Amino acid sequence: MADNNLYPVVDIPEYEEENEEYDTEYKPSVAWDLEKGDFVCESPFCMLKSEGLEAYKIWCVKAVSTERYSCLGYDDDIGAEMEDAMKEEDDTAVELAIERTIEEALMVNPRTESVEDFEFSWEPSVVYVKFTVYAIHWEKFDLEVTLKRR
C-alpha cells in the first residue's frame, strides 16, 4: 500500500556528543634541523621523520619563528606577532611583548601547559630569547630562538 503523505517523513538520527578529549598522541612529522632551518634528509628524496617530543619541540620553534598571518597555508592561530613586538619603544616593552606573543603562539597547542622563565640577550641586530616550555605529557624543556631586530 502506497504512503500518501503530503510531506516527506524522515527519520532523524540520534545526536551523539563528540569526545572533548584531544588526541594526546603526537603524530609523526618530517624531521627539521633547527640550526640549518631545513628538512633532515637521509638521501636526496628521503626525508627522515620525527615523533613525539621531538616533533612537538620542532612545532614550538616553528610556531614562534613564523609570523602570524604571513602564510596562507596556516590557520590564523598559528604563528607569533614578532614584527609588532619588535616595534615597541624600549627594550623592556619589547621583552614583555615578545613574552606575550610567544606564550600566545604556543598555548594554541593543547599539549602546552605553560611557557615560563624567559631570558633575553641583546646584540645590536638580534635578540636571543631563551624560555622553558612545560608540556602536558612530557617533561619540561628549554628552547632558544633568535629574533632579528629591524
UniProtKB/TrEMBL annotation:
Domain of life: Bacteria
Pfam families the record matches: Sheath_initiator
Name recorded for this polypeptide: Protein of uncharacterized function (DUF2634)
